Amino acid sequence: MVKNKIILIISFLILTLSISSAQAACDFQAELGEKKSKFEKRKFQSRGFPMEHVGLEVFPMLAKDVCSNQKLEDIGIEYKFLNDELIAINMVALNGEDNSVSEKLTLMNYAKNNYGAFDTTQNPRAYSGFEIYEKSNQFIVYQRLPGDDGIMNEQIYITTKELDAKLMNFYTKMELEGIQ
C-alpha cells in the first residue's frame, strides 16, 4: 500500500515537471527551414522591418510580443532568413552600457530551464562563456561574453547542424569577398 502511494507520488511529480517544462519554452511561431513567404503571412503583435544584407534578412521582434507566456522583458528575437529560408532564431539580451538585462539573468535562466543546466559557479552574474546543446534536430548555443565596449553579448542561437553549416558558409563567403 505504501509502495503504491510512493509510486503514485513519484509519477505525479514526473508528470507535473514534464508538463511545466514543456510549457516553459517559447513558441517562436515559425519552423526552422520554412520559407520567408510563409513567415510573412503570420500575424505578430509587432514586427520590425527586416535588416537586409545581400542574401540574408533578419526580422527583429520583441520577445514579449512573440512569447507572451514568458517573462522575457528586454529580450529581442531575430529571425534570420538566408535565401528565403529560416536558417536561425536568435534570442538576444538588449543590454545597454550597464548590462542591466544580463544582470537579471533572464536569458541564462531561460537557457537552463529549457535546454539544460550548466555550471555558473556560485556567482552566475560573473559567468562568461558559452554552452552548446544538441536537442533532437536542434543545435543551440547559449553565449554570454563581454564585448570590446564592455556591453555583455548574451544570446541564444537556435538552428540545426545543416542550417548552421549553410549560414557559416555564407559568412565565410562574405568575409572572403570583403578581403578581395
Explained architecture:
The protein has 180 residues and is of the alpha+beta class. It has six helices and seven strands, in the order ααββαββααβββα. The chain has helices spanning 2-24, 36-40, 63-66, 100-103, 106-115, 161-179; strands spanning 51-53, 56-62, 75-82, 85-93, 129-135, 138-146, 152-159. A hairpin with a 2-residue loop joins strand 3 (75-82) and strand 4 (85-93). The protein is globular, with a radius of gyration of 19 Å. Residues 7-23 have low confidence and may be disordered.
Short structural summary:
The chain is α+β, with helices and mostly antiparallel strands.
Structural class: alpha+beta
Q: What distance separates the N and C termini? A: 77 Å
Reading the helices and strands in chain order gives HHEEHEEHHEEEH
Strand count, sense and barrel status of the largest sheet are: 7 strands, antiparallel
How does the SSE layout of this entry go?
Blueprint: H1 2-24, H2 36-40, E1 51-53, E2 56-62, H3 63-66, E3 75-82, E4 85-93, H4 100-103, H5 106-115, E5 129-135, E6 138-146, E7 152-159, H6 161-179
Antiparallel strand pairs: 1-2, 2-3, 3-4, 4-7, 5-6, 6-7
Tags for this entry?
180 residues; alpha+beta; seven-stranded antiparallel sheet; 6 helices; 36% helix; globular
